[in-house]
Amino acid sequence: MNRIKIFDTTLRDGEQSPGCSMNLPEKVELARQLEKLGVDVIEAGFAIASPMDFKSVQAIAAAVPNCTVASLARCTKGDIDTAWDAVKEACHPRIHIFLATSDIHMEYKLRMTREQVLSCISEMVAYAKSKCADIEFSAEDASRSDRTFLTQCYSRAVAAGAGTLNVPDTVGYSTPQEMSQLIAYLRQNVAGIEQVDISVHCHNDLGMAVANSLACVQAGATQVECTVNGIGERAGNASLEEIVMALKTRQDFYRAETGIQTRQIYRTGKLLSSITGVPIPPSKAIVGANAFAHESGIHQHGVLANAQTYEIMKSEDVGIPQNTMVLGKHSGKHALREKLSSMGYELSDVEMDDVFARFKDLADLKKTITGSDLEALVLHHRSAGATACQLVSHVVNAGDGLPNTSCVKVRRDGKVLQEVAIGSGPLDASFKAINRMLGMDVKLDSFSLNAVTDGEDAIGEAVVKISDSSGETYTGTGLSTDIIESSIRAYVNGINKLIEATA
Length: 503
Ligand code: KIV
Ligand code: ZN
What we know:
- The protein is an alpha/beta fold.
- It contains 17 helices and 16 strands.
- The strands form 4 sheets. The protein has an 8-stranded parallel beta barrel with strand order 2-3-4-5-6-7-8-9, surrounded by 7 helices. It has a 3-stranded antiparallel sheet with strand order 11-12-13. Strands 14-15-16 form a 3-stranded antiparallel sheet.
């Protein structure tokens, strides 16, 4: 069995996708979950990109002792110094250096000759190695680079001390066969390649990122770079959960294994989705709401007779909550803790008190509380962290033909404020009232509402994206069986994040 390292770049490449930005506490929280998931390497960010990126990489380096923590760096001393400063306190630090090697990138972007690129690789990998024992080198746009030249680049990187050679399909152009041939070619031609890890990093522009990555594993790659839910630049990166479950489910074929705790997969995807407010598409493989659902009668009949007729994986193996044991208003804290623990959530006593109080409120409104309801409560508990403002109460008047009005009462730093506003709808009126009472110039960029479970008493989860006058965006989420309340809660949650970030 070949052991494949999982290099997670959700916090770097993933965070580059529109709408997926995260603040520092959110990044640390996700990094901790990635550690629980069992990834080998967390690419925590691109430390030189901004002071906030630097701080996030530094905080993650301190927070996750059991993973290697990497920072990305261009092939310059300034980038390498900053990357090293950010990761040096990690238990296992790594600097990940990249330089483009395709003719088009060298000519138009870098304006460097092949000779200059080769010297730069030797010099900068050696410089980084003098600081950090673990160096990864990526030849950006490797899949469109001249093979002979690419071989020279990687040979230089190994000679200068790189322990991992990453082969990116930066623009998602390659086919599985081409990627597999490229890995085979590099294994035959790069000097010293047998001493290092061969990594792949595939983008999904043609929908082939996962297939390309798996083809590389077959050809001898020992590390795969990927992201939770497949987020990333443009069409995204190879999806972590698809790669891991393909290797596990088809171990007979790939003869490879990872160190991933697969029962943490679903939870990780949901956490990312709740932090970014980007929903998981229903048909997404492994973690989508329909991934294990059987609609057609023929399929249902088959599954009832023998699950393996139509199921190649068990939903519990990826940690999807089984809605078998339901709780209700008479359930106590002990039962709640047991249920949460069976779903992989271990809460501290303080967290438990808060979630239990929310559980009791919800139990007054809903007859039965399912695993999905509980999951929403726990995820909401985490996003409710920043609490400069708390919603006290609201009354809306909505209808057709008359102006919609809303009166909202909020407690800010212990003081109760209230305001009435007119708007084009009940939410517009409510958000205007909140802006006015807090004296804030906040713009609503997007709004979405999803039912967490089925049925008429389903919890509605609202997600708002707001931006301040500098254009910085914040994601807020809110939960309630009343959709207006969940929307106002989401708005207040977003405002709290804004206040915290700008304090
Ligand atoms: O897609 C890419 O080439 C990258 C590199 C920086 C590894 O993200
Ligand atoms: Zn990339």
